[in-house]
Amino acid sequence: xxxxxxxxxxxxxxxxxxxxxxxxxxxxxxxxxxxxxxxxxxxxxxxxxxxxxxxxxxxxxxxxxxxxxxxxxxxxxxxxxxxxxxxxxxxxxxxxxxxxxxxxxxxxxxxxxxxxxxxxxxxxxxxxxxxxxxxxxxxxxxxxxxxxxxxxxxxxxxxxxxxxxxxxxxxxxxxxxxxxxxxxxxxxxxxxxxxxxxxxxxxxxxxxxxxxxxxxxxxxxxxx
Amino acid sequence: xxxxxxxxxxxxxxxxxxxxxxxxxxxxxxxxxxxxxxxxxxxxxxxxxxxxxxxxxxxxxxxxxxxxxxxxxxxxxxxxxxxxxxxxxxxxxxxxxxxxxxxxxxxxxxxxxxxxxxxxxxxxxxxxxxxxxxxxxxxxxxxxxxxxxxxxxxxxxxxxxxxxxxxxxxxxxxxxxxxxxxxxxxxxxxxxxxxxxxxxxxxxxxxxxxxxxxxxxxxxxxxxxxxxxxxxxxxxxxxxxxxxxxxxxxxxxxxxxxxxxxxxx
Lengths: 224, 265
What we know:
The complex is a heterodimer of chains A (224) and B (265). Helix content of chain A is 86%, strand content 0%. Chain A has helices at 4-35, 39-70, 74-107, 116-139, 142-172, 177-209, 218-223. The two termini of chain A are 35 Å apart. Chain B has 265 residues and is of the alpha/beta class. In chain B, α3 packs across α4 (133-144), α3 (114-124) runs parallel beside α6 and α6 (164-176) packs parallel to α7. The chains are: A mainly alpha (224), B alpha/beta (265).
């Protein structure tokens, strides 16, 4: 029997999926604005962040309503708590898309750095992690969530490589300092996309298994 | 007797006050309880939950042999109170019920004064014989039940003049007057309003410093609020027992999860 409470949970799930979709669109567009040097696309991403922020507030209200009226327990409680944290991470992912778009507006005014291929590689890894975590949430699949966490080191390593290269460039060529600083910020934002996708994956694991794997190495052993 | 358990990686020993081992219970040919094994830890509250007809009240009434009053019942297995078999032939059932008190779903005060409700059983048992001992016992019991401040100045009034919540606390005071070691509570707040329910729940928190409490409740939030451990019964079987915070956040059995989240059946 489907109760009103279960309908409330379904509504929450739909809201989270909508936030996943808006954030995915923003991240893809921000990377495209950077790589294809499109100011209009960057502007769209910056404008679109308000919708993501508004949805986070809407989800917080839904969660408050569910907690106050239904006092969920067990799986339901974990789902509601997990969604609360995921919504928070999605809002931050939206902020990262905005950061990248703002840097794109700066970088688009100047000649392209040769290093942008490496930035594209980092974007590919981070966006792949993000797409996987959407899939993991829609299926509540903790094995797939574990795989996302496993990719985080790749994103971290690529970010470090990019920053080292940029430091080398800046040491030899003063003229690129401004562009290099903006690119460092972009690389850090992309790396944060990987981190936040990992956070979401950990919350999916918590919803399904009831085990908190944050700040530990337990994820690999539990899901292997 | 002690029970060994783990809190994280730390091994703990917990004293066991009551225990049932392989308990089966029959109403004529109907097997109402099947192989129930539970250890009740001293000075803790254990909640028994489950759908209507699952056997939790039957099980509760086994613990002080209240079911003996029903004809055509049969009990198999062992029930221990401090390692003493409560179905042993030489056991004094009246003394057992003094040590294992009971509070029922509906308040059931005697049609007597507030004072007499408390004094009745101690008088029969020959307790508090001298001077003001009975007065002291009545006051002490009412204080322990959190009722003294409300009724201390009208002890001669009929108990039935009290509100439902006060009557239920009077019944708890009446049980406490016999200085029980275990208190069985069968849905003690189900007939009460939210404020009276809150008072009963606060009382349970206070009483567990002196007693072992076993409570049957249909109210999931109440079980979560008042108990240290929760046992889930279904169709006469114990499906799962664990620390209450585990049961209400990550129960191990699917049936438990489905019941407490309302997806049952």
